[in-house]
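Sequence only, no structure available. Ideas?
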Amino acid sequence: MSKPHIVIIGSGWAGFYLAEYLSPTIYDITIISPRRASTYTPLLASAACGLLNFYLAEEPVRSKSRKCRFLKANVTSISFPSKTLHCAPAFDDDTDPITNQPFTLTYDYLILAPGCIPNTFNTPGVAEHALFMKNVSDAMATRKLLFDLLEKASLPTCSPARKSELLHVAIVGGGPTGVEITAELDDLANHELRDLYPDVAPYLHISIYDVAPHILGAYDRKLHEYANERLVRRHVAVETNTRIEMVDKDALWVKGKGRVPYGMLMWVTGNKATELVMGMRDVRRSEQGLVRLLTDSHLRLFKDRDSEDVWDGVFALGDAADIDGQSLPTTAEVAVQKAKYLTHFFNSRSKGSFNVPASLPFTYTEKQLVSYIGSRDGIIAGRGGREGWTGRSAWLAWRSGSVMWTRSWRNRIVILLTWVLNWFFGKEIAKM
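Reply:
I predicted one. C-alpha cells follow.
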C-alpha cells in the first residue's frame, strides 16, 4: 500500500519545521509555497544592515537531507469534502505558458500554515511606495535603496535640505520588528556609514511612527519607557499617537502635521489574512482583529461557528491559525511549538492508527520577549513574577537567540564567525 500523503501549505516557521521533521518513511510529504526558501525573520534587519550575509537569513526548502516534494505555487482554493487543492504556479511576470496552467492535488492529511501578509490598513500609496520586511528580497531591497540614497545625497548638486529629505528613514510600526530595524540602521549610521560617507552620514535620521500611545506595547511600562528614552537620546524621533493618512513616492502625510518628506519608508505595522484564508468557506474564523482560522486544542480545523465538528485530516497552525478561546500571539515561537506538537503526533503513530482525542492537547510554553534597541542595548520582559531587565546582557541574549533560530549548525557557525570578523574588521557592508 502507498503511504499517506501529507500536504503542507506554506514554508514559514511552522511549515518548514514540519517538512524538516515529519517522517518520510511513514508519509509522502508535499510542501506548497510561492517561496522556495524559509526565512529566518529575526535575522532580516541584521542582513539588511550588513551584519551578516543574506543567504544566512533563509534556508532553501529543497535539500538532499529533506525528503519531501516541493511545488512553487499558490493554493487558490480547497475542497475539504473531496480533499482536493486547486493550485496555480507562483512565477511573477513569467510569460511561459506552463506558469499559467492551474493544477489540482489530493491529500490524505492537510496542514494549513500559509502565514499572513503585511497589513497596509488600506492606507493610500503604501503598497506602491513602502518597503516591507517579510523575506530576504525585502532585506536586499532595503540595503540597495539605502545606498542609492547615500550616493544621491553625495552628489555635488544635492542641497543640504535635499540631503536631509533623501536620508530620512521613516519606519511605520513601533513593535519589535520596527524597533529592531531602527536599532540596526542607527548602529550602521553611527559607525560604518560615518567612515564611508563622512559628508552625508550626519544627515541620516530615523523616525518611528505608531498609532499606539507608546512603542513596544507587549512590554511593561518600565521597559517600553526605557526603550523610548534610549532611542530619543540617540536622536531617533519617536512619534506615537500618530496616524498616517496617505503616502506618495517622496512623502507621507501625517494627521495633524501634514506632509513629511522621506527617502525610505518601511511599513512594519502588522499582518492580515491571506486571500486563501479569507476565501475559505465552511470554516470557523476569528471575528475580531486579525482574521485567523480557528482550531481545537489538537490543532484540527473547525468546520464553522455553529458546529463542534472538525474537517477530517485537516490541521492549521502558524500566524494564520489560532486555538479557539486562547488567542495566542503571532510569533515564531508559537508556530514552532505547534509544529513540534504536530510532528510528534504524526511521527508517533504508524499508518492507520490515528486517535486524536486520546492524545494530549497542545499547550503553549511562554518564552521571554527580547528586543534589541541599538548601541548594544536591549530589553527582556519579566516572567513568573520576576522583573525584566535591560542593558548589554539583554543585547547578548537577543544576539544568542538570533543564532539559535537557524536550524543549520553550519549557518550558526558562519554567523558566529561573521560576528567575530565584524568585531575586528568592521561590517561586511563597509567593503561593498
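The radius of gyration is 23 Å.
Hope that gets you unstuck.
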